[in-house]
Amino acid sequence: MEASYYSVDESLVLQAHLSRAKALIEQNMNVLADLSASTLRYVHATGRVDNRDSYLKFVPSVKYINIETNDRNIVLIGDVAIISGAMTMCLYKQGNDTPNYPKSYFMEVWKQYGKEWKLILFQSTAVPA
Questions:
Q1: pLDDT surpasses 70 at 4
Q2: CA–CA separation, 110 vs 36, rounded Å?
Q3: Per-residue pLDDT for 51 more than 90?
């Protein structure tokens, strides 16, 4: 769905989702920290599980070139939003000059704190090649 099909509240959550992807590509740790709740639980497609602190330490070990999400679905339940869809990335892992192109399905759970949306849960499931 294009952003124009979303309600105002859904668009605000989508903007947080897109800002997080942009911050990963730009390695903007301040934005990533601001978008991550202190209770963040981040489950990678590999099975690695991070909390907020370990996730923010992990991010610099990967150079994200591109992150695309599509078939997004946004569900709002009060001050919580769930975004799910398909994701394709281009990235380089630390110490490796060969690009990786992982594909996965993802689910993000965002919580609204005042006017800000913060990521509280990320879960990714790898799509077999």
A1: no
A2: 9
A3: yes
